[in-house]
Amino acid sequence: MRLKRILEQEDINFVGRPKNKQKQLDEILKIQKVTTPKGRKGSELAISLFCDIANGTHPVEAFIKANLDVLPRKRR
Question: Where are the domains of the chain?
Fold first, then answer.
């Protein structure tokens, strides 16, 4: 249920992305044969993150490729 809410929030906040970034996401999703439903481009970034990890990318590297910052709890 939490993942569903995260994905929905990403869809709400989505305002667009560069074409080269979209192409990169499409390639990651293609390897896992995942298609994103129409109107879900925001959640596509989170879904591609999981697919990238499933494709063998180290989770930290996948977060960096997705331009996501993760701070350790102690540094917050």
Answer: 2-68
pLDDT of 15-53, one tens digit each? 999 999 999 999 999 999 999 888 888 899 989 999 999
HSE-up (13 A, CA, CB side) for residue 62: 17
The model carries a pTM of 0.77
CB within 8 A of 72, min separation 6: which ones?
Answer: none
CB 21 within 8 A of CB 43: no
Contact between 42 and 14 under an 8 Å Cβ cutoff? The reply is yes
Q: Which residue has the tokens 């063998």?
A: 56
Which string of DSSP letters, residue by residue, matches 31-65?
Answer: HTT--PPTT-HHHHHHHHHHHHHHTT--HHHHHHH
